[in-house]
Amino acid sequence: MFQSRVLRSAFQVVPRCAPRARFAPRRQPQFTPRSFSTTPFRLEKDENGEEHDSATTAGQPGESGDHEGQFARTDETVRVEYPEEEDLPRSAPVQGRGGRLRTLASFSLEGRVGVVTGGARGLGLVMAQALVTSGADVALVDMNRVEAVHSAEQLIQNFRNENPGVKRLPKVTAHFCDVSSPTSVNDCIAEIIKTHGKIDNLVTSAGFTENYNAISYPYDRMQKLWSVNVDGTYLFAVGVARHLLERQSPGSIVFIGSMSGAIVNVPQPQAPYNAAKAAVRHLAASLAVEWAHAGIRVNCISPGYMLTALTKKILDDNPDLKKQWTSLIPQGKMGRPEDLMGAVTFLASDASLYVTGADLRVDGGYTNT
Ligand SMILES: NC(=O)c1ccc[n+]([C@@H]2O[C@H](COP(=O)([O-])OP(=O)(O)OC[C@H]3O[C@@H](n4cnc5c(N)ncnc54)[C@H](O)[C@@H]3O)[C@@H](O)[C@H]2O)c1
């Protein structure tokens, strides 16, 4: 993607300086005498609690030390541009997630056709694997056609290895689409229906993040980010819902949002991404209400920090970020793509028939603190 881009992939964290030092130079030790017209409310100190006043709104910024707010700030020196395709390693299906353990029949997706956008790689690929393992045929949709074809073959091979002697192999196909283009989305949905006969489930994982501080975020890149993350989710959902309504068939749609749609994770600045994922989350709720009468459910999964090819590369280049990220996660660990397999199967299947408009956070507890 971004073929026309001049900038190549770049992950950089400019050496850090204390945010406090940049934004709030240490103030003069002397307070300005109070006056009715200029005195800020925070200078109203409680005489009995002076020792702790500096840590309240009575204190000036930085008065109780440089630590103030330091774990809750974005750091504008963290800058990450989404890399070119060839700079990201391939993803592979995870091993050992198939097999024959008994589970609830309502989790089965036998006879269903699922579509996964962004399914060539990363979270999308592993969630597609969860659908295949649960009995569905799957269409992988991606801008990277070559990678999608490779991943489709891998999914079938993986299924064969984990289910020796199985009579019917799943049908897994690869389809090109730029999810931000209405024409491309409509053509792609028509191609999938022609190939598979129908669509029952949709998972929208096509999306990406970049990190720039808001002041210097290039406008064209911001538009691209929103068009893939928000428009792409909307366009695919509407296309699949239209098909389900025409078929008068129930279905389940799962949007991949992010914990960043509910909270502002730090330190990397990413205001447009956060806003895009908030839109995705609320779009799920809104469409859930709009299509509930037709038995079409729409839910959102909001992952926390998951170790994919992209996040791995970011952390390889910025080891400091790993410590900061994991120190803010109650479970203390990042998630793996396979940690989404159960969540997506639950929401796609009849196990969640009475769940719609929900946001399922899979984030190690990040958004609880
Ligand atoms: N990795 C994480 O930690 C994390 C956390 C929270 C949310 N998410 C979200 O999960 C989703 C998947 O993330 P990932 O880490 O697997 O990313 P990834 O880059 O590994 O995979 C994204 C896939 O989407 C495809 N894609 C990008 N733009 C597209 C377009 N316009 N049309 C069609 N396909 C397109 C890419 O080719 C790629 O195959 C994204 O929406 C991301 O925002 C990821």
Per CATH, the class reads Alpha Beta
Instruction: Give the helix tally.
Output: 10
Identify every distinct bound molecule in the structure, by name, code or SMILES.
nicotinamide-adenine-dinucleotide
Count the domains: 1
Identify the overall geometry: elongated
Strand order of the largest sheet: 5-4-3-6-7-8-9
In the predicted model, the low-confidence regions spanning at least 5 consecutive residues are: 1-40
Spell out the CATH superfamily.
NAD(P)-binding Rossmann-like Domain
Protein name: NADP-dependent mannitol dehydrogenase
GO molecular function: mannitol 2-dehydrogenase (NADP+) activity; oxidoreductase activity, acting on NAD(P)H, oxygen as acceptor
Family: Belongs to the short-chain dehydrogenases/reductases (SDR) family.
Organism: Rhizodiscina lignyota
What does this protein structure show overall?
This protein is of the alpha/beta class. The protein has a single domain, classed as NAD(P)-binding Rossmann-like Domain (Rossmann fold, 3-Layer(aba) Sandwich), CATH 3.40.50.720. It is built from 10 helices and 9 strands. It has helices at residues 19-23, 50-53, 122-133, 145-162, 182-196, 219-247, 271-291, 309-317, 319-327, 341-348, and strands spanning 11-13, 78-80, 113-117, 137-142, 172-176, 201-204, 251-256, 296-303, 359-362. Helix 3 (122-133) crosses helix 10. It is elongated and about 75 Å long. The relative contact order is 0.13. The site of nicotinamide-adenine-dinucleotide has 31 residues, from helix 3, helix 6 and helix 8. Residues 1, 117-118, 120-124, 142-144, 177-180, 205-209, 228, 232, 256, 258, 303, 305-306, 308-311 line the site of nicotinamide-adenine-dinucleotide. GO terms for molecular function: mannitol 2-dehydrogenase (NADP+) activity; oxidoreductase activity, acting on NAD(P)H, oxygen as acceptor.
